[in-house]
Design a protein that fits this description.
Number of strands: 6
Bound molecules: adenosine-5'-diphosphate, magnesium ion
Shape: globular
GO molecular function: ATP binding; riboflavin kinase activity
CATH topology: Elongation Factor Tu (Ef-tu), domain 3
Helix content: 10-25%
Radius of gyration: 16 Å
Strand order of the largest sheet: 1-6-3-4-5-2
CATH class: Mainly Beta
Oligomer: single chain
Order of helices and strands: EEHEHEEEHH
Number of helices: 4
CATH superfamily: Riboflavin kinase-like
Enzyme class: transferase
Organism: Collybiopsis confluens
Largest sheet: 6 strands, antiparallel
CATH architecture: Beta Barrel
Family: Belongs to the flavokinase family.
Keywords: ATP-binding, Flavoprotein, FMN, Nucleotide-binding, Transferase
């Protein structure tokens, strides 16, 4: 089994494909993220589940988080380890030659967290990526994905990964 798969990197702007409009914002890694590149040939495209943590970077801490307006500053609760679902797919923008990982953290954040560090631990596969006829079908499937993720992560063996040192060691 390739799991657990650890991913980390700075959150960057995605393609604005309407994640937020669907009630499912997805945090993107930079296109050259080496952890994502390492998954090529090891795993299928599709939807995965696992744990994720958003962490202020050292420069944000030193600058008093100057990159972010006060109302956008994350709370102590926001920076805990949360369940996540991840979509892994070939990026049509790069002629399907680049693998893209987008992570929806299952938590209501106080604001956006672009430029923050995102650490994720991928623990299992849910389903392949499908072509959806309509948005309702897509949203229904995303809701099911979240339930599957919650149920899997509630098992002790999976829950233990949320306390892994990977999430807590300094950058
Ligand atoms: P983009 O195309 O820039 O990725 P999205 O609509 O997918 O835009 O929104 C993603 C952004 O939303 C993330 O980069 C992050 O800053 C913010 N965000 C807020 N809440 C969440 C969440 N629960 N999961 C993922 N991203 C979130
Ligand atoms: Mg996104």
């Amino acid at each position: 089994s390739p799991y657990p798969i650890a991913l980390s990197g700075r959150v960057c702007k995605g393609f604005g494909r309407g994640g937020k409009d669907l009630g499912c914002p997805t945090a993107n890694f930079p296109e050259d993220n080496s952890d994502v590149e390492k998954m090529v040939g090891k795993v299928e495209t599709g939807v995965y589940y696992g744990w994720a943590r958003v962490i202020p970077t050292s420069d944000q801490v030193e600058n008093g988080d100057a990159a972010h307006s006060p109302q956008n500053r994350l709370s102590e609760f926001d920076t805990r380890v949360h369940p996540m679902v991840m979509s892994l797919g070939w990026n049509p923008f790069y002629k399907n030659e680049k693998l893209t990982a987008e992570i929806h953290v299952m938590h209501e954040f106080g604001g956006d967290f672009y430029e923050y560090e995102l650490r994720a631990m991928v623990l299992g596969y849910i389903r392949p990526e499908l072509d959806y006829i309509n948005q309702e079908a897509l949203i229904e499937d995303i809701d099911t994905d979240k339930l599957v993720a919650q149920n899997c992560l509630a098992r002790e063996a999976y829950r233990n990964f949320s306390e892994d040192k990977f999430f807590f060691e300094p950058s």
